């Protein structure tokens, strides 16, 4: 291999080693080249730099690069906010080894930020003094050298964490304590961290707690990364308040303190926390002004002196009197009186079915019966043992009663079957419990809810006494039903049982079946509420939600224009008329105003386009020319006769549309297959057909009489009220005739005609005879 991999961690050292080896191996052949290589190496730098950190590999020491990126004249004048921030942030200290010096820069940035100046404004005079002091300390940091190796051997060691806080900052520092021989210990700084206090004022005890939490997190992170075993952890603080809090239940404090104590409790133990005097706490160096003699011999790097001593010479633990700190929760004493639940049956609130509750109660009674023989046999055993001490060895062994049995059909164990007596007894106990909780145990007959009922106590149950006691062939439960309160849970379970047993029937059916045995107060409302809560009834009796209706077209809302400005047309029929001695077909043409809902009737002799246009011209001559006309699309007449469908299709031809355009009419067709969009005129066609069906039936009047009947049907439809009268004293309702003729009046009949006039030769008489049922 003649090359090294670019970017590999070992590449620089491998290349340097090969160069030196070649210089030594070929010195006798190339002395000048060897001297040049060796001279170049000696003149080279003896340190490595990484992100501002310096490693002096010959002495295996670490240092800091503290050359700010600001202009060179920044120290000769007052710097700006931007220049101060750049200078402070240019020093990289990931391990917090220089925290006592660098925390001054962070506090300076906070002070400048609090002043509110802009980025390119010069700092205030008070901040300039702090700035100059920080730059002097930064120059002192330039010559600092710290030993990189902290462990002298690979044996286990101890972690000691110190925390402290002040109004300026809070900090922590972690030391590695390792035994070198029998009586000496080596203490080395592993890491430190300092933070400035928040802008919002915080009490000193809370800041001390924040420092303790910061130290806990840092010690846990270091312990996770170390490959050397940590045999002991010790946490030191000079705050008696924090020590008291840590040894107290976090739930007794307010949220701020409680949350931080809970996190500390997860990573540490109360017995690991110790008290240290403030004068011996190295973390205090990062919360005050930067020390003037900050070098490798400072206490910050070597820890307090007592860590190098034996444990017997350490500061003695002190006991502190717990005093109120203002962080405790307010304690409330609540006196509660609890009575023992003497319920002999299972709690009915825990059951959703009457059958399950009944069977569970029956199982309890069955268990009591199985336990009772054992108790009786124990009493007999004591009596027999007093008479004959040897009776246990001579007696025959009796089978032991059990809850479960084995049968040839079921070789595995099965539950004992429930007998009807068990179920009846369980039902009686449940009903008696319901009555006792609803009406009281003492004198339930006098309860206010039973004041209007004639109740009597029979066999421990309240029953309603009626007037059919003498009736024969009637069940006793029907004569005197059991009284229950409908609000009790047992009564509700009973009603739910009957509701499901009778296939979720109507209320009358369920009520009739319940009253065969029970008289439940408020039965009707409870049955209705049970049906409302029933999930089956909700699913299978629910009605689909109607889709939302669309907005009305603009043609339906033109109230300021004359009637029939926007109209719709439709055909209906055919109707047979008598012409001479033959019968011919005629069709009704209905025009309706989309705004006033008035109708106009015309009679068409054929289904041609010309006949329809003539009807349109007659309507326009009497009502005015429409601007917009709507009509069906031919597919709406599926099932109608072929000729009518052909007429609508002819109306869509270019001839009709073009001639309508000449009349200044805009013709619109509804979409195919959407008859619901033509409901505005389809409903009026039905009204006209209903009116004509009363008069025509199977008769064939003359054409002139049919035309008269159509106009009278038009008058009847136009006399319908558009809105209902809300008050009886209102004179009349609003009708389409109010928009057409200004009033709503019926057409009086001229004379009195009989049914015989239908076959008369006078059109007047036959017309009146036909129209009399219509006007009535």
Automatic annotation (TrEMBL):
UniProt-recorded Gene Ontology molecular function terms: nucleic acid binding
Disordered: region residues: 755-776
Domain spans labelled Integrase catalytic: 559-744
InterPro entries with a match to the protein in the record: Integrase_cat-core, Retrotrans_Pao, RNaseH-like_sf, RNaseH_sf
Composition-biased stretches (Basic and acidic residues): 755-765
Gene3D superfamilies documented for this protein: Ribonuclease H-like superfamily/Ribonuclease H
Source superkingdom: Eukaryota
Pfam families reported for this sequence: Peptidase_A17
Listed GO biological process terms: DNA integration
Protein name: Integrase catalytic domain-containing protein
Organism of this sequence: Bombyx mori
């Amino acid at each position: 291999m003649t090359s090294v991999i670019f970017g590999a961690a070992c590449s620089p050292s491998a290349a340097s080693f090969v160069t030196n080896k070649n210089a030594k191996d070929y010195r006798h052949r190339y002395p000048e080249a060897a001297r040049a290589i060796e001279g170049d190496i000696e003149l080279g730098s003896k340190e490595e730099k990484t992100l501002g950190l310096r490693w002096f590999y010959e002495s295996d020491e670490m240092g800091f690069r503290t050359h700010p990126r600001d202009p060179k004249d920044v120290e000769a004048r007052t710097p700006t906010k931007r220049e101060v921030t750049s200078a402070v942030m240019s020093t990289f200290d990931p391990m917090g080894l220089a925290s006592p010096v660098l925390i001054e820069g962070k506090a300076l940035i906070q002070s400048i930020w609090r002043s509110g100046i802009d980025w390119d404004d010069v700092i205030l005079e008070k901040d300039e003094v702090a700035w100059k002091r920080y730059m002097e300390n930064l120059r002192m940091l330039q010559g600092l050298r710290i030993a990189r190796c902290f462990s002298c051997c690979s044996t286990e060691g101890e972690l000691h964490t110190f925390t402290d806080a002040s109004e300026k900052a809070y900090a922590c520092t972690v030391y590695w304590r390792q035994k070198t021989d029998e009586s000496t210990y080596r203490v080395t700084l592993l890491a430190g961290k300092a933070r400035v206090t928040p802008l919002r004022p915080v009490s000193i005890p809370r800041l001390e707690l924040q420092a303790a939490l910061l130290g806990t997190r840092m010690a846990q992170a270091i312990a996770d990364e170390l490959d050397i075993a940590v045999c002991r952890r010790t946490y030191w603080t000079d705050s008696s308040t924090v020590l008291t809090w840590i040894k107290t239940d976090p739930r007794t404090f307010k949220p701020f303190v409680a949350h931080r104590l809970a996190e500390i409790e997860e990573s540490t133990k109360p017995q690991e926390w110790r008290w240290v005097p403030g004068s011996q706490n190295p973390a205090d160096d990062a919360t005050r002004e930067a020390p003037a003699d900050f070098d490798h011999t400072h206490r910050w790097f070597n820890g307090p002196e007592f860590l190098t001593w034996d444990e017997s010479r350490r500061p003695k633990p002190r006991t502190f009197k717990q005093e109120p700190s203002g962080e405790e929760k307010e304690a409330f004493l609540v006196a509660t009186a609890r009575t023992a639940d003497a319920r002999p049956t299972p709690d009915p609130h825990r059951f959703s079915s009457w059958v399950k509750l009944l069977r569970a109660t029956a199982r309890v009674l069955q268990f009591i019966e199985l336990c009772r023989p054992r108790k009786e046999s124990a009493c007999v055993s004591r009596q027999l043992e007093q008479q004959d001490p040897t009776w246990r060895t001579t007696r025959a062994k009796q089978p032991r009663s059990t809850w479960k049995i084995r049968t040839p059909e079921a070789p595995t164990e099965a539950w004992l079957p429930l007998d009807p007596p068990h179920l009846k007894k369980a039902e009686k106990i449940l009903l008696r419990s319901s009555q006792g909780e609803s009406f009281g145990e003492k004198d339930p007959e006098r309860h206010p809810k039973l004041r209007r009922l004639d109740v009597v106590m029979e066999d421990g149950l309240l029953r309603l006494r009626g007037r059919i006691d003498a009736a024969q062939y009637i069940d006793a439960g029907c004569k005197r039903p059991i009284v229950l309160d409908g609000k009790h849970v047992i009564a509700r379970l009973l009603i739910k049982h009957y509701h499901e047993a009778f296939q979720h029937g109507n209320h009358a059916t369920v009520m009739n079946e319940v009253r065969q045995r029970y008289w439940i107060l408020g039965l009707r409302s409870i049955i209705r509420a049970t049906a409302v809560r029933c999930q089956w009834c909700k699913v299978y009796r629910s009605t689909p939600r109607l889709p939302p209706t669309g907005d009305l077209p603009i043609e339906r809302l033109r109230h300021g224009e004359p009637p029939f400005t926007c109209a719709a047309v439709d055909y209906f029929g055919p109707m047979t008329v008598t012409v001479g001695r033959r019968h011919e077909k005629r069709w009704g043409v209905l025009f309706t105003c989309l705004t006033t809902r008035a109708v106009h009737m015309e009679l068409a002799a054929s289904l041609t386009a010309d006949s329809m246009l003539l009807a349109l011209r007659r309507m326009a001559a009497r009502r005015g020319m429409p601007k917009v006309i709507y009509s069906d699309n031919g597919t709406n007449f599926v099932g109608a006769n072929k000729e009518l469908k052909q007429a609508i299709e002819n109306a869509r031809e270019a001839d009709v549309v073009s001639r309508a355009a000449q009349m200044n009419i805009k013709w619109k067709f509804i979409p195919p297959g959407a008859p619901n969009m033509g409901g505005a005129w389809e409903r009026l066609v039905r009204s006209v057909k209903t009116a004509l069906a009363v008069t025509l039936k199977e008769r064939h009047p003359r054409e002139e009489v049919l035309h008269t009947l159509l106009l009278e049907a038009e008058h009847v439809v136009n006399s319908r009220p558009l809105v209902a009268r809300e008050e009886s004293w209102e004179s009349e309702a609003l009708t389409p005739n109010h928009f057409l003729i200004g009033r709503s009046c019926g057409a009086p009949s001229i004379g009195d005609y009989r049914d015989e006039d239908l076959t008369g030769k006078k059109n007047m008489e036959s017309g009146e005879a036909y129209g009399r049922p219509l006007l009535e």
